[in-house]
Amino acid sequence: MKTVLRYLRPKAGIIAVEMCIKLAGTVVELLLPWMLSVILDEAVPSGDFHSVLVWGGLMVLCAALAVVGNVAANRISCATSRDVTHRLRGDLFAKVTRLSCAQEDAFTTPSLISRLTSDTYNVNQMIDRMQRLGVRAPILLLGGIALTLSLEPVLTLVLIATLPLLGAVVWFVSTRGVRLYTRTQAALDVLVRRSQESMAGIRVIQALSKGEYEKARFDEANAQVVDRERRAGLLMNVTNPVMNLLLNAGLTAVVVAGAFRVNAGHTQPGTIIAFLSYFTIILNALMMVSRMFVMYSKGAASGRRIAEVLNAPEELQSRPQPAAGGEEHIRFDHVSFSYGKVEDNLTDISFSLRRGETLGIIGPTGSGKSTILQLLLRFYDPDNGVISVDGKDLRSVEPAALHSIFGVVFQNDFLYADEIGANIDFGRGLPQERLEAAARTAQADFINTRAGGFGAELSPKGANLSGGQKQRVLLARALAADPDILLLDDSSSALDYKTDAALRRALARDFKDTTKIIVAQRISSIRSADRILVLEDGRAVGYGSHDELMRTCGSYREIAEIQMGEVE
Ligand code: ADP
Ligand code: MG
What is residue 415's predicted lDDT score, i.e. its pLDDT? Predict the structure, then answer.
């Protein structure tokens, strides 16, 4: 709530103006029944037609003022909540892009999506409603009670007798409402996650004919949301009839008691009619208050979810640290890391590379190969040990400066639905020669023979390219900006051996001064690397050149022997 208020503060002036308009409109509206009672009890009995006209005209004017004031105020409140939500959503998105990977893992992507969409919508609704009803309901309630007291103190007692009952209903509804709506938002998170998973895996789902299974999974999540929404809605819908029942019971009591009092000459019929109008106004105000509580609880639950993200600490802060010197370009010094902070995913990894050297990383899936690259890119910080680039602790380098020295191809990298050239350029505004040179090194000659060349349009995710063609476009993208450090995560796996070999030769020739880390499944892709790191379960079981490893590392020799038949 504090966070939402922070966003409301700049709008305090306009909100104050709006509330004044609303206040005036509501007060005028409150006076209407009182004027009616004046007409009925004084003007009509005295037969003064002129004063009936004057009071009647005044009533029309006041009613018009009330409507105009309400509409104007509602327009302002709509604009305010729209602007506030706009900024809130913008900041939330910016923050999401700055979250560290560990924080993103903790929030989960689907939950971040629903916070960005439905939670901000709930906050929008809350700000809007609170402005609309926040002034109106209390004024109608308190003003109504004050006016009825002055009109007919005895009948007001009837009204006051129903208030505790109504208060109890409001309290019951709003406390249960918050709980039910919080649960609904959580169910929505699940729904978003299921749809996202299905979208991402649509090809696999179709290939394995798992459409029905997926549909069932989705239906389950969908039913969950509907069920919780229904429970919350049911509760809210019970409110109105119950309130109406109480209202009408109260009205009946007032009419009966009023009839006796008129008969006894204690009061006049006009007063009773005005009183009935006020009674209705007061009960409506109570219902507004209850609706306000619902909106508030829904908005507050969502506001809390948004604030959690906005107030998440900036984890990846840089620590100034003097350069340590040394001729190493990249150095891992006894690095350990765990994603979940339970079990290490990497244990005590050390290696170092001089400028222009190549490190090969090989090992079974899940052994931590990609994790090493993620740490080097500082998507995560290591739990123990130090990673340094150019002798400087990674944590002392500005993230933007850090990312500009890397060229990266990830395991599941993506291409945009855009021209091939634009996919290689990637918004960096590189000259055409660089794109072409990068494509040549990446062995992506197929681009030239394709209709349209560099201008050829790709389908979303590059679906109109083969796996190997995709990898080569991605390679060209990584090479185009002439990076200091090149990270390739299993990015030549779809190339045939001949093209793979040509790629390695071209890399060695055109990117002599680039330090390379190459993750591969095939020994042939890395055997010429200066050093090779063999990983198993996050531990280094071998580190050295191909020849050394063939002599000393059993795991490496085993992989080599399995692949030997294909390679040599
Ligand atoms: P490789 O690239 O060698 O196949 P990874 O480095 O991707 O392996 O993964 C190493 C281990 O870390 C695996 O056990 C995997 O389950 C785990 N892991 C990878 N990414 C995450 C993540 N974002 N959150 C939690 N665990 C992860
Ligand atoms: Mg991997």
Answer: 85
Beta bridge partners of 386: 333
Q: At 414, give phi and psi (nearest 5°).
A: -125, 155
Rounded CA-CA distance 183/225 in Å is 9
- 316 band by pLDDT with thresholds 50, 70 and 90: low
**Helix (H/G/I), strand (E/B), else coil: 398:** coil
Cβ(174)–Cβ(297) below 8 Å: yes
State how far the Cα of 115 lies from the Cα of 128, in Å rounded to an integer: 18
Tokens of 525: 């892709």
Tens of pLDDT, residue by residue over 455-512, are 988 888 888 888 889 999 999 999 998 899 999 998 888 888 889 999 999 999 999 8
Per-residue confidence band for 120, with pLDDT thresholds at 50, 70 and 90: very high
Q: Residue 366: CB within 6 Å of ligand 1?
A: yes
334 Cβ neighbours under 8 A, 6+ residues apart: 348, 349, 350, 384, 385, 386
Q: Indicate the pTM of the whole model.
A: 0.62
Confidence of residue 567 (pLDDT cuts 50, 70, 90): very low
For ligand 1, say whether the CB of 105 is within 6 Å of any of its atoms: yes
Distance between CA atoms of residues 439 and 421, nearest Å: 10
> Cβ(103) to ligand 1 under 6 A?
no
Query: Cβ(371) to ligand 1 under 6 A?
Result: yes
Q: Whose CA is nearest to atom 12 of ligand 1?
A: 345
Q: Is 430 helix (H, G, I), strand (E, B) or coil?
A: coil
Task: Return the axis-axis angle of helices 153-200 and 269-310, rounded to nearest 10°.
Answer: 30
Any bridge partners for residue 519, and if so which?
A: 361, 489
User: What DSSP element (H or E) covers 96?
Assistant: helix 49-98
Residue 102's contacts (CB-CB under 8 Å, 6 or more residues apart) are 315, 339, 380
Query: Are 198 and 205 contacting, i.e. CB atoms less than 8 angstroms apart?
Result: yes
In the chain, the percentage of residues whose pLDDT exceeds 70 is: 97
Distance of CA 341 to the CA centre of its chain: 25
Please state whether 427 falls in left (phi above 0), alpha (psi between -120 and 50) or beta: left
